[in-house]
Write a structure and sequence with these properties.
Length: about 600
């Protein structure tokens, strides 16, 4: 009898025990992997309690803000030193410490840096897990039949959930670099899904929880805006087939909502305001430029940069983006000025110089200043570890553009570059990089055409979507002159080869693209049609036909023939496959089709 009477009491006590899993683990075992202690790098866990008494959430947020200021003011060492001491006992210090190592890993691509970043992120996930809300068994069972009680979260538990989501996102990105197998690709996908679910929980917390501390809510909300906004934006850009698959497993993407969230996050004076800024700058000045026929939002980028350059006049990141903004406007001399200022503003992360050198390479190519372009691509080929194969091809391509002035030693170097570059091909997630595959094909073509390529740098400009700058006539005339010289060569057939029609198709495509950007639509159409008419006679450069069809669709769209443009985009998407840089074109097709359907819908209403 006694044991029967006391059973409910025993059960009640058991039901109040905290379970191992956190309140909002999402079914994956991502937390388990990160639960090991990295005692050799971080402070001993026994010091955890005393450290925590000294480091409150409010103080942690203040120090994180200070570290952000240091970081964007090029005081990288000071920022890192501020985060490290409490990396074992504060979610923001653990996250901040891991972020600095993550950025170093991304910039250097050094195996040792990647391992250090992975270790720091693993530890940061462990620290965040300590402070995430724990459910009792009763609460866990209750979740099955009723809604979550978000008001039960403390401020620290809410922030721990948000930091956990951010750590997972960075860890998933690093997984691709750590290991190139399919299993790592799957692991990264699982982490991203778990991250996305954590962000959705955070969105519920910010909307449904009653906040006592408005500053705490502000910092938390800016992080939610940044995370949800970035996910919406990135998913919305993926091709239709991938989006359908992602929606099936719970992902959703809405570009307008994503941009609105990021802009709102930028307007909030929260700790992640600057991350919203960086995402907006990266999307509008880089992603939109490469993957869309549209321009990014120049106005909001100028607004951000005007404010931030007053605050951080020597900040490497904002000087870089100002250079990118001037590049987008076609102000190449100003662009060189800001890229150079960015490059020379700090020496701690020499790898950041390589980003500036990449940009300066293309600015000088657009100005047809081949010796200057050669200087920067030579540095990248020698020092950078991002893609030696592609750098070697681009260096060779630049040298071909100044072939008449090459010395005997440089001509020998050119041949060696083309011969050796396939040795440096990389594989990411078990697959070769599309641009490296393209470079290897062109290197083979170089020898197949008696050590000759026509205008390889202009072809690369087209694939990187750099011909958008052709709206500036002063820039366009130099590039167009090179294309017209090549056009004369292919039509007079001075040096016949089996690739004659391939060369014609490439030249016609490039000239049509320049004419489109220069505002000569009817001339552009004639060149795209000439490219497409050669489709049966092309030996290798099969990519030019679907690319020409998409270019043709964009011209028709600009002329108001929207239905015709949509049919052309669908033709390129459905009827062509297994050509160079296919995925890149599918991103552009998706962006154009999505915008065109919106316009068609509006016109019918």
């Amino acid at each position: 009898m006694t044991s029967t009477l006391t059973l409910p009491v025993r059960v009640a006590k058991i039901m109040e025990r905290p379970v191992e899993n956190n309140a909002y683990d999402n079914g994956e075992d991502d937390g388990q992997e990160e639960n090991d202690n990295d005692s050799e790098e971080f402070e001993d866990a026994n010091e955890f309690a005393s450290d925590l008494e000294d480091m409150t959430l409010g103080k942690a947020l203040e120090e994180a803000k200070k570290a952000i200021f240091y970081f964007f003011n090029n005081q990288f060492t000071e920022a890192k030193q501020l985060m490290s001491p409490y990396a074992n006992s504060s979610v923001y210090h653990a996250l901040g410490h891991a972020i600095f190592l993550f950025l170093e890993a991304i910039l250097t691509v050094e195996p040792a840096s990647i391992r250090a970043a992975a270790k720091a992120l693993k530890h940061a996930l462990t620290v965040c897990n300590r402070f995430r809300k724990k459910n009792t068994i009763g609460e866990s069972l209750g979740k099955m039949v009723k809604k979550n009680h978000y008001e039960q979260f403390t401020d620290l538990e809410a922030h721990a959930e948000l930091c956990y989501a951010e750590c997972l996102l960075l860890k998933s990105m690093l997984t691709f670099m750590e290991d190139e197998t399919l299993s790592s690709f799957i692991k990264a996908g699982i982490k991203i899904r778990s991250c996305f679910n954590s962000y959705k929980e955070c969105q519920q917390i910010v909307n449904k929880r009653k906040w006592q501390d408005e500053d705490s809510k502000l910092h938390f909300e800016s992080g939610v805006k940044m995370g949800i906004g970035t996910f919406n934006l990135m998913i919305s850009m993926l091709p239709a087939k991938i989006i359908k698959l992602l929606e099936f497993i719970g992902f959703q993407g809405n570009k307008d909502q994503g941009l609105n969230d990021l802009i709102e996050g930028y307007q909030l004076n929260g700790i992640r305001q600057i991350l919203c800024m960086m995402t907006l700058l990266g999307y509008n000045l880089i992603v939109m430029h490469v993957l869309s026929h549209r321009e990014g939002d120049i106005a909001i980028c100028q607004d951000i940069l005007d404010k931030q350059l007053k605050k951080h006049p020597d900040g490497v990141w904002f000087l870089f983006f100002q250079g990118r903004l001037e590049f987008m406007k076609g102000n190449l001399t100003e662009s060189i000025k800001y890229y150079t200022l960015s490059w020379k503003s700090q020496d701690i992360w020499s790898q950041f110089h390589h980003i500036c050198f990449w940009e300066l390479l293309w600015v000088h190519c657009l100005k047809c200043e081949w010796r200057q372009a050669h200087k920067f691509i030579s540095i990248l080929t020698k020092e950078s570890k991002w893609s030696k194969c592609l750098y070697m091809y681009q260096k060779a391509a630049v040298m071909i553009m100044m072939r008449e002035e090459l010395s005997f030693e440089e001509k020998t170097e050119l041949e060696n570059l083309m011969r050796d570059l396939p040795k440096y091909k990389q594989r990411i997630a078990g697959k070769s990089l599309p641009m490296e595959k393209f470079a290897i094909k062109k290197a083979e073509r170089f020898f197949g055409q008696k050590k000759r390529l026509l205008i390889p740098v202009i072809e690369l400009m087209f694939l990187w979507n750099l011909l958008k700058i052709m709206k500036n006539y002063e820039i366009a005339k130099g590039v167009m002159s090179l294309i017209e010289t090549a056009e004369t060569e292919v039509e007079t057939n001075i040096k016949p080869s089996k690739y004659d029609n391939d060369n014609k198709a490439v030249v016609y495509l490039l000239k049509g693209a320049c004419l489109r950007h220069m505002g000569a639509p009817n001339q552009a159409i004639s060149y795209f049609e000439k490219t497409i008419s050669l489709h049966r006679d092309i030996v290798e450069d099969h990519y030019v036909v679907p690319y020409a069809i998409v270019e043709l669709a964009l011209v028709e769209w600009s002329l108001g023939n929207k239905e015709k443009a949509l049919l052309a985009l669908e033709d390129a998407r459905k009827n062509y496959t297994s050509y160079s840089c296919e995925s890149r074109l599918h991103f552009r097709i998706h962006a154009a089709t999505t915008e065109l359907k919106v316009e068609l819908k509006k016109s019918k209403n």
